[in-house]
Every structure is written in C-alpha cells, then in structure tokens.
Amino acid sequence: MLLSALVLGLLGSFHCVGMCGPIAFMLPVDRTNSLKKLSQIAIYHFGRLLAYSIIGLIFGLVGKGLYIFGMQQQLSIVIGVLMILVALIPYQTFNKYNFSKPMYKLISKVKSALGKELQKKTPDTFLTIGFLNGFLPCGLVYMAVFAAIASGTALQGSLYMLAFGLGTIPLMTIAIYFSQFLKGSIRQHIQKAIPVFIVLIGALFILRGLGLGIPYLSPAPIYDVANAAMDCDV
How far apart are CA 57 and CA 132, in angstroms? Predict the structure, then answer.
C-alpha cells in the first residue's frame, strides 16, 4: 500500500502544482546561490513531509480505534467506495457543496501565516512555509487521508502520508525551477490519469476489506485464521 501512496503522490503532484504551485513559485529562495537555493527547497519539502506525517499519525490513530472495535474490514471497504465515488463524481458537483467551509476560519489563519512567512528570508521560514502548506485543503490529500485511516495503525498512517508526500517532491521541485515545463498536453494527460489511479486504489481497499484469503492483496481476517487453527486442533 505504501507503493500506492508514492504513485498517488507522484501523479497527484500535477494537481498539487495547480493548487500549491503559486506558493512554491513565491518561495523567497536565494536566486544567486544554487546550493543555498537547493537547501532552502529541501527544507521546504521537509516541512511539508512533517505536516503530512503528523496528519497521517492522527488519522492512523482514528483507524486504529476502529480496528480495535473490529471494524477494520468494513472501514477498508467504505473508504474504497468513497475513493471511487470521489474520483467518478464531477468536480463541479463538489464545488456546489464546499466541504471545507467548516474549516474556513482555520484555513484563513493558515493562509495569513503563510503570507507573513513568504515575506521573510530567515532559515526557519522555509520549514514553516512547507509545514503550513501541508495543512492546506487539497482533494488528493483527502484521498491519502482516507487511506491513512484504513491503514489501521498510527505508524502505518504516518508512513502512508509520508510516502504520499515523497511522491509529490519531484514535480513540486521542477515547478520551482521550471514553471513553464509543466504547461501543455502532458499535464492534461496526467490529470486525466489521476481519477483512474484513484479508482484502482479504491478497488484495492475494497478487495482488502473483503478478506478473500489472497496473500498480501486480500489477506484473510485474523480472527478467521485463529478460528481455523482452533478447528484443526479439535
């Protein structure tokens, strides 16, 4: 599943560039020193990865709570269905129902803090910008959060979000260096491929939740294995 997070981040970064690209373009990096510029960009990415890891940790704990109550399989199926629905429902439909509205106050505070940090050039600025950037609302991040919940543990949830963040780094870095490179038909083709990949990940979660006894892909539930072992002993 960590591989799916990496690929989701890699493909989804075309979407991320559209959403977070303006922030990346406005980073107050040192244009005169290539090495210093690279280190500043690396610190910015570290801040984003830190934010994603914390988000994954929190929602992984939520998933762990549901796992304790024996709802892990059902949760995996529900999240798989949600991911497929989100990928298939037209984006315009979601615009009619702004799900981020309850968080507007928090988001406005994050954006305000980002605006202040973008005017600075201190060493901690890039870490702060990256960290705050990681908490801005984004559809692809929501998909990764769904998967983090289904992971069932805080560690796995954190690792899933970390892998997702790592997948976004290559293209986000290119966006900072070569903003014109990301325009054109290539970006459009990748944008069309994102929903297809999300549907595939959703199908994998549904398959895993069904517990068909397929190693790695759809392992049998732990309690089924335990019961089978008890039956053999009898």
Answer: 17
Residues forming a β-bridge with 218 = 214
Contacts of residues 179-182 at CB distance under 8 Å and 24 or more positions apart, as own/partner, are: 179/21, 179/25, 182/14, 182/17, 182/21
How many domains does the chain contain in total?
Answer: 1
- pLDDT tens for 69-95 read 667 777 788 888 888 887 787 655 555
Q: Which domain holds residue 218?
A: 2-233
C-alpha dihedral (221, 227, 228, 232), degrees to nearest 10: 160
How do residues 2-12 score in pLDDT, each as one tens digit? Answer: 777 887 788 77
| Tokens matching residue 73 | 């399989």
| Residue partners of 212: CB distance under 8 A and separation at least 6 | 218, 220
